[in-house]
Amino acid sequence: MIEKEEIKMSELMENPLPVPIFEEEDRDESTEEQITFVVDDDKKAEWCLNKIRAAETEKKNWKAFYDERYKQICREMDATIERMKFYLESYFRTVPHKKTRTQESYPLPSGKLVMKKAAYDFDTTDPAFLEWLKKNKMTEYIKVEESPRWGEFKKFLLKDEDGNFERMPDPDAKEGEPVWRPVTQDGEIVPGVVVTVKRDEFKVEVG
C-alpha cells in the first residue's frame, strides 16, 4: 500500500492517481502455471480462499483510499465552482439581460448566465394530505394506481416436472432474438412478460 500523503490539485491534474502495485509473489509467473495448478485437496482449496480473502481486503483498502481522495477533490472543486458562480452572478447584475416570465438570461460566447425567478414548490408526501382528501370526500383528486399481483399470478404459470417455468417464443415479436413469454397452465402465452433464464452461478463464501 502506498503512503497516503496529501496530493496537490495541480499534481492531480498533471498526473493520474497512483495505481496499486501488487507484490511479485502474488503474480502468476506464466500461463503454464495457471493451467497446471489444480486444487486437489482441502489444503490447496484453503490456500485459494486465503488468496481471495486477501484480495478482497486489498480491494476495500484501495476503495477507501480513493473514495476519500475523491471526496477531497470534490470539496475543493465545489468551492471553486461556487466562487466562480458568485463572481458571475455579481457581473450578471451589472449587464442588460433578456427577461421572460420564468427567468432572465445573458448569453456569453461559451455559455449563458441564467437567473431563474422564484417559484412555488409543494411537498405533498405527508399522509395527512391524503387523509384530508378522503375525509372531505374529494376522491377525484386521489390517484389510484393499478399493478399486477405477480406473486399470486406466478402460481398459475406452467412448470415442467423439475419445477422450472415453461416458456415459449412470442409469435408476434419482431425478427431477431426471440422474446420468451411465460405460459399459463391452460397453455396460453402471457403477453407483456419477458422470461430471462439466469445461468448457474458459482460463488465462494469466504468467512
Task: Describe this structure as you would to a colleague.
The protein has helices at 9-14, 31-36, 42-92, 127-135, 150-153, and strands at 98-99, 103-108, 111-116, 167-169, 180-182. Strands 1-2-3 form a 3-stranded antiparallel sheet, with helices on one face. Strands 4-5 form a two-stranded antiparallel ribbon. The protein is extended. The protein has 2 domains: 9-98; 122-200, no CATH class. It is built from 5 helices and 5 strands. The longest helix has 51 residues, at 42-92. It is of the alpha+beta class.
Write the SSE topology.
Blueprint lengths: L8 H6 L16 H6 L5 H51 L5 E2 L3 E6 L2 E6 L10 H9 L14 H4 L13 E3 L10 E3 L25
